[in-house]
Amino acid sequence: MDRELTEMEAIVVAESEGEELETLGNDPNYVALMLINHLESSEDTEFRELCVDMIVELLREDDLITWSNLSASTQSTVKTFLLNSIMVEESGFVVLKLGSIVLKLAASFIKDNNWPELVPFLYQCLDSSSKKYAKASAFLTLAGLAEKVGETIVHSMKGLHSIFRDTLNDDKLDLEVRSVAMYAAINFIQCLSSSNEKERFQDLLPCMMKTLNDALSSGNVEFILRNQYPMRYFMMLANEPRFLRRQLVDVVCTVFEIVEAECLEEDTRHMAVEFLITLVEAKEKAPGMMKKLPLFISRCFAMLLKLLLDIKDEPDWHSAEDVYDDSGTTRIFHVGSGCLSRFSLAIGGKSIAHIAIEQLSAYLDSPEWEKRHAALFALSRINKSCSKVITTKLDEVVSMVVNCFQDFHPRVRWAACRASIWLLLDFSPHLHEQYHYQIFLALAAAVEDFHPRVQAYATRALGAFCLSNKLETLIPLLDGIVNKTLVLIQNEKQMVQLEALRALSATAQTVEEHFRTYYDTVMPHLKAILRDAHLKSDLILRARAMECISIVGKAVGKEKFRDDGKQVMEVVVSFQGLQAKADDPSTWDMLTAFAVICECIEQELLTYISAAMPFLIQCVKLHFESNELDDTSIETIKIGDAILWKKDDDPKEKAKACEMLCMYAKLLKEDFYPWISQVVPILVPLRQIYMHNPDKKSDVSEVMAALLLSAKLAVEKGIAEGAYFKELSDHVILALIEALHKEHVAEICQIMLKELKNCLLICGPLIDEGQLHQIVDELKHVIKESLNRKRKLTERTKSEDFDDEEAKVLADEEAQEDLIIVRVGTTLKTLIGTFKAAFMPFLDELLSYLIPMWGNDKPTVRFTSIYIFVSLVEECPEAALKYCDVFLPLLLDETIDEDPMVRQYALYGVCLYAESGGSVFKPFVREALSRINVVLMHFRAHEPVNEEAYDKAVSALCKICLLHRESIDSAQVIPIWLNCLPIKADLHEAKYVHDELCSMVERLDRDIIGHNYQYLPKIVSVFAEVVFSDEKDVSTEETANRMISVLRHLQQTLPPATMESAWSYLLPHQEMTLKSLLSPEV
């Protein structure tokens, strides 16, 4: 035993000093075998537990590097030892630790059957006669394998249904074993690929629920904690709603009982709520299932409403200085609040609104303040999803809220103010149209409430009232609003001052130049706050004042604000002496306000940039540095040695920093150049975070483009050297390509492609041949990856349980993949436009990817393929002729596509080829006429969605008539073209064809005029429609004047009878107007 303890002490010392276990004896084989020997020979339980911890540490790597360094003999010994020890070990801790090692190894070996003894071992452990911990370990291993290699374990282990059933139904069996058996069964069920296979396990549901109830009612808290809550296992079934359908009533009733059991752990009740909400949200898997459950909506809403009663009237809430302080609320309260929003959105307003209003009304009539508070809080959580129904019941809802402004309890009055904000924001303009003055009177009284928390939130609501209002209804109230906010700005409570500044900002933002009346009164107060708020405790007040000043300045205009703007800037510059706090929201508020003021005073801001920009960059850098950690187990993104983001960090703050730098770059343009070198090392890595922030994804494509544009403008104006722009361009494009190659999320991938395209629009000419190869290779990679993902989506449609609900889920994913192809198309168009014919060799590399898109079943993909090749014909028509034999037949096929956009662009391609193809186009003329005729004669050709394609067809026919007349029967085709005129949807083509018509009439083209001027009535009709069209852009002014001149000439030269017959196509008012216009006096 002494020898054992000495070696174990060495191991413990090695671990505590951070040394690798393999260094002990310089031989991992020695360490592994030594630990196994101790585990087998020692009778000291505590010692064995230490040993097993060391084995876990030895094999801690996910990639099993240490395991791979063990000899084959040692590996075999370890595997044999693990299985034998689990069967005989008495310590539950040791068994479960050994089981975790088995799971890690098995997940790697079971696919290739490199551990043939494993499956028989698991069956042996699951036998009814095996020991408790061995059985539990086997179930945990099975559950883990189902998660990691589900398909393999399903095929490797048969007959599990009876094992699960017998274990779960055995009331004499330890609850821990039954609980992990439930866990394994649920994981196994989720691995099954078809609904028929899952159906075989339906009979396990009752015994699962019994196991759950037994575990929760056992009162053994230690057991529940050690097993990480049985409810957590059961709630995974919420991902299988169809599996629950047959016994849904029983399942839901059981879960309701768990939620309502206040004796249970808070986390358990929370998970039960989550189970129900997840079922409701699983509309793509089982649409309408929960709605059809009798009384479910009413009971679930009542349950969630009841959770909002878990609140205490804490003194800290009344004395709090922060408007966001929620002292007295519990975790359960916040669970109820969040789930109310999710529940109402998932169920839908039509199903929930009437039930909700009935229950909320009952709560508002209660003498308990908690219920009245809960009703108002719930109303603000559901009003958006129920907006259509609530709009029809505004009278009742507004009365609910306004009446509570007079409640005796301050927390209820506070909740009424909060609810009024959501009503104002979500139901304008309907709310203002009917209840404008009623709400204003209530708010005007509330801002004078004696309780500062209520007063502050009422002031915020007043700001929402102004922001959501119409100018004409707000102006009569301006005197009262401005006077009240000026008083509130001077309140002794800072939170009231902050909200008053916000309300004043909202007022100025809404009324804009009408605020000039109050400017001279308001601005001195704002500047005083800015000047006097010099202490660190007043930083947020100073930032809010800055924000208010910037909005007021923008509202009243540059001329009025210029002098004050300069004074404010000087104060801002002086702030550099104070240390900027990265985690202080006031820092970003102040910098945002600075940018708005910059916009107001335009180029005059340059005086202050040299001081203000370093302050901005300092704030950004400080924000990064504030997130440095020593925990290497947390995923991070770094710039140099600084950690940018960790798993627990909020990326919204990083996104704000990125957005701020982007804002300044776009605002300053070439004047941002001096700071580009400091910003690029931050922005290039940070854009990854910015892009993955759900609130900012739509703006991310502007980030790097803004920097490149600043550098480009600086070069053009002689501020910077061209070499620097090239260096920056190389750096940015390479970073984008590398990031794009690593990205696997379709939505982010398409945003990155948009960003790449925007950057190429700016720096495209600087791209060299090597970079072009990189870009094209990456586009090929993107297309291949997208096709692979789409192939997997298609495979999902072939599963036995695929249905309409699943199709809706796949549709969104497919839409993102289609958008990737669209982005590839716009990127290629940019490259074609930049490099013209020089890009042809690179396009040749892509043909094998692009040509198959023509036959794709998705219109967006077909459109993109046409878009790329039409761009080629547009940008370099001569070079594109070599593709004529390949692409022109494809274009002609697509001219009769069912999708109007595909049809329109294919016809545009025919237009271009007809115009530039010359003799190359001649063999295709007959086929082109046939396809064009199909478009023109379609019975829905003139429907709005098809009009632009129709106009392209008319334009294509015009070009064939003019440029390939020798290949057609012009006497037959040209009158057909004339009868298609005028066109008005595609204004570009309209100008072209109407001008050509005018030219043909001017030269008295025999085919357009016809025998004995037989087509003159149609010509006059077309001219009249063009000249008097409400759409003035259907022709140029020159063309319209020429048409009038031609008609005058014809009137003067043709026999009166001929001209009289020409008016026959006109309506009476058209004839009168046209004759008046053609009279000699005009």
List keywords for this structure.
1082 residues; mainly alpha; two-stranded antiparallel ribbon; 2 strands; 72% helix
Describe the fold and architecture.
The chain has 1082 residues and is mainly alpha-helical. Strands 1-2 form a two-stranded antiparallel ribbon. Mean pLDDT is 83; it is low at 1-6, 11-25, 224-228, 626-651 and 693-700.
Uncertain segments of ≥5 residues (pLDDT<50)?
1-6, 11-25, 224-228, 626-651, 693-700
Strand fraction band? under 5%
Q: How much helicity do the residues have?
A: over 70%
Q: Mean pLDDT across all residues, rounded?
A: 83
How big is the Rg?
Answer: 37 Å
Q: Per the principal axes of the C-alpha atoms, what is the gross shape?
A: globular
**Sheet with the most strands?**
2 strands, antiparallel
- Strands of the widest sheet, in order across it, are 1-2
| N-C termini distance | 122 Å
Query: Structural class of the helices, strands and pairings?
Result: mainly alpha
Count of alpha/pi helices: 57
* Strands, count: 2
Provide a short characterization of the protein structure.
By secondary structure, this protein is mostly helical.
Draw up the topology in text.
Layout: H1 2-16, H2 28-41, H3 45-58, H4 65-69, H5 72-88, H6 92-109, H7 118-125, H8 132-148, H9 150-156, H10 160-169, H11 175-191, H12 195-199, H13 204-217, H14 221-226, H15 230-234, H16 241-244, H17 248-260, H18 266-281, H19 296-307, H20 315-319, H21 331-347, H22 349-364, H23 369-382, H24 387-391, H25 394-403, H26 410-426, H27 430-446, H28 452-467, H29 471-474, H30 478-489, H31 494-511, H32 516-532, H33 539-556, H34 558-574, H35 585-601, H36 606-625, E1 637-639, E2 642-645, H37 651-668, H38 673-692, H39 703-716, H40 722-742, H41 746-763, H42 769-797, H43 804-835, H44 840-850, H45 859-875, H46 877-880, H47 884-894, H48 900-916, H49 925-937, H50 947-963, H51 970-979, H52 987-1002, H53 1006-1009, H54 1016-1027, H55 1037-1053, H56 1056-1062, H57 1068-1078
Helix pairs in contact: 1-3, 2-3, 2-5, 3-6, 5-6, 6-8, 8-9, 8-11, 9-11, 10-11, 10-13, 11-13, 17-18, 18-21, 19-21, 19-22, 21-23, 22-23, 23-26, 25-27, 26-27, 26-28, 27-28, 28-31, 30-31, 31-33, 32-33, 32-34, 33-34, 33-35, 34-35, 34-36, 35-37, 36-38, 37-38, 37-39, 38-39, 39-40, 39-41, 40-41, ...
